[in-house]
Amino acid sequence: MDPLEYFNSELDDHAAVLARTHADLAAPFQNMLRLWVTAIQNGHKILFFGNGGSAADAQHLSAELVVRFINDRKPIPAIALNTDTSALTAGANDLGYEQVFARQIDALGQPGDIAVGFSTSGTSPNIIAALEMARQKGLVPTAFTGRDGGRMPDLTDACLIIPAQSTRRIQEMHITLGHMLCGALEQSLKLV
């Protein structure tokens, strides 16, 4: 392996996915932002959840909203459901891993809250179950995914489908768009 060749190849691939994302996702991005703004303006919260690297993205974006992203401002209510190890392990042990997020949404979600599931494939059973529970409970189900979207577009009111096959490229765009949503939410809410 030539390190420079690898370096260039990876950045070229990233740039190509970024260009496709830029071309394809302006309208879905605006739709997701509109849902988030409406929910927060109406006193609701955002519940993020994902597995693996997507769990890290969920936790990251939740922290950006609760603490701050760009501006010092009032906190925006958000929580990453994948951070409670006791609920995760009890749920996995007692109910099965497919139910770990659905159970938390059932317990913590209120009608009008936003549920944000992350799955690069769009087929993760526990994310699907959580989005189904969100819809059942009157939350607004939304998602970040990739590839062909899997089952997630049919289960959500807003879905950001990254036009890529590679998990790493999809996750790179997820955090980029997540950061953009945090910034746009701050600006839209005009919180001080």
Describe this structure in words.
- The structure is a single chain.
- The protein has 192 residues and is α/β, with parallel strands linked by helices.
- The chain is 58% helix and 13% strand.
- The protein has eight helices and five strands, in the order ααβαβααβαβαβα.
- The chain has a five-stranded parallel β-sheet with strand order 2-1-3-4-5.
- Helix 6 links the parallel strand 3 and strand 4.
- The longest helix is centred in the C-terminal third of the chain and has 23 residues.
- It is globular.
- The N and C termini lie far apart (51 Å).
Summed up, what is this model?
This protein has a five-stranded parallel beta sheet. Helices cover 58% and strands 13% of the residues. It has helices at 3-24, 26-41, 53-66, 85-95, 100-108, 125-137, 152-155, 167-189, and strands at 46-50, 78-80, 114-118, 140-146, 158-162.
Sequence-ordered SSE layout with sheet pairings:
Elements: H1 3-24, H2 26-41, E1 46-50, H3 53-66, E2 78-80, H4 85-95, H5 100-108, E3 114-118, H6 125-137, E4 140-146, H7 152-155, E5 158-162, H8 167-189
Parallel strand pairs: 1-2, 1-3, 3-4, 4-5
